[in-house]
Task: inverse folding
């Protein structure tokens, strides 16, 4: 048991190191910007005094390494700073700025909700379809599924999104095409409004998960113990569910975790299409107005989630495979 | 509530129908093995497929206008989809037939064992290449040419606000959409192709170099690639595009050039991984040892010994990588930070034309333009994937 703990801890440590290096990359990348932050915030009509004031407020007169550690400390204590747009707003006499943390928190939970709904639909669907495709491989069903999944993997998310809007919102008004979600909305309404983005993401990830499930099971079907189970006279369904599936779990879990990581990238486009108030939408809006602190914070959150999910996939596949659990 | 009840009744009929189907099959064919050993799930699958087929035919034959004179847009879209599918299937079949009798012995043999999906893919790629190369000659108007009328709807029907001179209508500032779609092939596909080539040049040469030299260079490159791959590529691209957009203004260089460089670098990490892995398997071969003993230089080793032997996996990767790059560029453009106007580009067109989709219920033809642009992206990636899938299947020698 201690060896498993050691491996898991090793992986966790590696993940932390990666995250640390990624944070350096993000910080350095942003510092490649030409000119000065302060001038960028204030625009062309900035007076030297206000530029100096902002520089001092943001600590831009410090050397880069000091700034990096101040920024990192802020990130770790969830003090993400204030966005340029908000600073500008305050500068022109706007009242009550919100911090980035306050901006991001509700959006992050919205995005989590969307990802959770998607996973709740996509994972059972993909595993079931994958098992069916493996069971009836090389039949018309399998070939149709292959063609359909290959098409949906390779289509851009927004194509899927608009096709779904066309059929489920415009022609047959079943779900709303705009997902205006707000706090205190009843759960059922929230679910209904986020159904179309969730279905779009489902279409994209299900295809991949299903193909991998099918491949993982078919890989096992040549094993001697499957032959044995077949010769015992078990039904094909029972052979697959009882004998092949438990052994195929490791790759399947891996693929599910990787696809959830993929969802992180997918949500950006889908949230923009459906105007879903999630973190992806905030990210794109900030990119457009070059609101650097928000872009930095969102980028780090996306990267952290991505690394975490990949790490989970890694650890789960070690735990579910005895051969990896006891390395020679 | 009634719709739930209807669905329950339909399900019950299908479940019963499956039982009847299997029983009838056993009686009629006198217990043929196919029906005797059929599981209930399989029988249900057959009945479900038959029911879907009947529904599709019934829906296809619905009138285009309801009794009240309203457009029945769902039927119209369904007919277009079915017609498109049938035409694509026939075209793929004819193309394969054509390939079986024309060309060298090698290509004829290739076409004989080709599935329809692959021949469809090759046909589509060829068509895109032709449209992209001859865009200037095919397109009726220029891509940035602002014509007399803005917001002309597609379909060319004057009663609905169309104009026969612009079959797909014009956009918000009066540019011909058909011409922009055609030029989009040149811009979007061309830029994606250049980016992929650049990514392969960077990633491939560094990967082979790491595999040949190994040691600290390999460690340095591999660890840097690990870090770059830990950031989701679209997110990283968006971050770098933010910075590049400031630089583009500062230096007066078009943002599109920055985009090509950024995406090429991000995607070259994936190419590097593959090139290094393939290269490592090759450098241990005897002929590399012999070449080293002959005193050949590094350039000879990489380009004359390793590259030709790594060609097959790299080619398949090129197809897949092209799809990823193409989709990333389309996504960036869709989000408004990719290919910049006045260049016509499909991602940007989808975003600009998207509001038209809300008119689908009243004027189906007016709503197709955003879907055409998005579909043009989807069709090419699907086609490339079909071809790559077939190539991988063929080279792996898998039968199942």
Result:
């Amino acid at each position: 048991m201690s060896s498993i703990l050691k491996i898991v801890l090793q992986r966790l440590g590696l993940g932390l190191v990666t995250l640390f290096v990624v944070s350096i990359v993000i910080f350095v990348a942003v510092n490649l910007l030409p000119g000065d932050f302060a001038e960028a915030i204030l625009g062309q009509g900035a007076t030297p005094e206000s530029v100096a004031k902002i520089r001092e407020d943001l600590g831009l007169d410090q050397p880069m390494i000091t700034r990096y550690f101040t920024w990192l400390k802020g990130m770790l204590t969830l003090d993400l700073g204030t966005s340029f747009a908000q600073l500008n707003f305050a500068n022109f006499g706007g009242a009550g700025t919100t911090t980035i943390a306050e901006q991001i928190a509700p959006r992050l939970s919205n995005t989590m909700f969307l990802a959770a709904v998607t996973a709740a639909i996509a994972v059972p669907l993909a595993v079931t379809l994958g098992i069916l495709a493996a069971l009836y491989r090389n039949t018309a069903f399998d070939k149709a599924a292959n063609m359909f999944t290959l098409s949906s993997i390779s289509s851009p998310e927004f194509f899927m999104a608009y096709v779904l809007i066309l059929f489920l919102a415009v022609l047959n008004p079943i779900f709303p095409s705009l997902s205006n979600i707000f706090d205190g909305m009843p759960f059922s309404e929230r679910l209904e409004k986020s159904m179309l983005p969730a279905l779009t993401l489902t279409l994209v990830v299900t295809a991949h998960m299903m193909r991998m499930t099918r491949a993982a099971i078919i890989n096992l079907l040549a094993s001697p113990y499957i032959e044995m189970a077949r010769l015992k006279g078990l039904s094909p369904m029972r052979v697959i569910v009882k004998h092949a599936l438990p052994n195929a779990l490791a790759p399947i879990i891996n693929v599910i975790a990787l696809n959830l990581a993929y969802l992180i990238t997918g949500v950006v486009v889908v949230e923009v299409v459906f105007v879903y108030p999630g973190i992806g939408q905030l990210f794109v809006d900030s990119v457009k107005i070059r609101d650097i602190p928000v872009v930095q914070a969102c980028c780090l959150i996306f990267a952290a989630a991505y690394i975490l999910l990949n790490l989970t996939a890694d650890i789960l596949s070690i735990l579910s495979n005895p051969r990896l659990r006891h390395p020679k | 509530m009634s719709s739930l009840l209807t669905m329950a009744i339909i399900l019950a009929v299908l479940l019963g129908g499956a039982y009847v189907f299997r029983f009838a099959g056993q009686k009629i064919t006198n217990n043929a093995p196919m029906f005797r050993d059929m599981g209930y799930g399989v029988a249900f699958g057959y009945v479900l497929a038959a029911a879907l087929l009947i529904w599709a035919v019934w829906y296809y034959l619905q009138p285009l206008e309801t009794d009240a004179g309203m457009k029945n847009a769902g039927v119209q879209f369904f007919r277009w989809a079915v017609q498109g599918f049938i035409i694509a299937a026939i075209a793929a079949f004819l193309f394969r037939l054509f390939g079986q009798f024309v060309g060298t012995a090698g290509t004829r043999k290739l076409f004989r064992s080709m599935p329809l999906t692959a021949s469809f893919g090759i046909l589509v790629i060829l068509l895109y290449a032709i449209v992209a190369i001859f865009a200037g000659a095919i397109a009726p108007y220029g891509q940035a040419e602002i014509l007399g009328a803005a917001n002309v709807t597609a379909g060319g029907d004057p009663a609905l606000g169309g104009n026969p001179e612009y079959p797909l209508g014009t956009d918000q500032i009066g540019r011909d959409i058909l011409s922009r779609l055609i030029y989009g092939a040149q811009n979007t596909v061309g830029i994606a192709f250049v980016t992929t080539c650049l990514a392969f040049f960077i990633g491939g040469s560094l990967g082979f170099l790491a595999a040949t030299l190994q040691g600290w260079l390999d460690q340095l490159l591999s660890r840097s690639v690990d870090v770059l791959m830990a950031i989701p590529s679209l997110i990283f691209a968006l971050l770098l595009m933010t910075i590049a957009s400031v630089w583009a203004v500062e230096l007066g260089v078009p943002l599109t050039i920055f985009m090509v460089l950024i995406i090429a670098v991000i995607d070259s990490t994936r190419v590097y991984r593959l090139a290094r892995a393939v290269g490592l398997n090759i450098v241990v071969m005897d002929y590399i040892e012999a070449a080293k003993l002959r005193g050949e230089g590094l350039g000879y080793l990489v380009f004359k010994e390793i590259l030709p032997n790594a060609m097959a996996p790299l080619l398949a990767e090129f197809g897949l990588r092209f799809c990823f790059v193409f989709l990333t560029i389309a996504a960036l453009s869709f989000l408004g930070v990719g290919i910049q106007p006045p260049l016509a580009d499909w991602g940007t067109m989808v975003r600009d034309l998207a509001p038209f989709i809300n008119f689908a219920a009243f004027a189906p033809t007016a709503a197709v333009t955003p879907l055409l642009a998005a579909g043009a992206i989807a069709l090419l990636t699907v086609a490339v994937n079909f071809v790559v899938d077939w190539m991988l299947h063929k080279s792996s020698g898998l039968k199942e």
In short: Chain B touches chain A through 58 residues (CB under 8 Å). Residues 177-213 of chain B form the longest helix (37 residues). Chain B has a mean pLDDT of 84.
